[in-house]
Please model this.
Amino acid sequence: MEDCIFCKIIAGQIPAKKKYEDHEIVVFEDIEPKAKIHLLCVPKEHFAYLSDMDGVRSALIGRTLQKVAKLAPVFGLKDGYRVIINQGDNAGQTVKHLHIHLLGGETLPF
Ligand code: AMP
Ligand code: ZN
Model:
């Protein structure tokens, strides 16, 4: 997707502080962190919304969550973390490329 900022990060066209990458996902630091540790886990396939999920994509999201759980200690999140997906305007979704927020590194306020 030409105008998608996360597709550009995935393609290496704009910089990001990448923490993990494999053939189907990339994990990088959020540019405006809302917690001491705030990472974005982003499937390389471009689709905008959780509601765009089909069977293949649901398996991809499942594997992504499994990797998050496995990698959490490596990311400094061994004491717990929060996983968030914003869907659409009411949730404040600003980037229309599905991503999973991973927040932690401290006691979260709510
Ligand atoms: P959302 O509001 O769920 O769409 O989340 C989008 C997130 O992407 C926000 O937390 C932004 O701070 C973050 N973000 C936007 N542009 C960049 C970027 N170039 N590098 C890293 N994170 C970004
Ligand atoms: Zn994209």
Remarks:
- The radius of gyration is 13 Å.
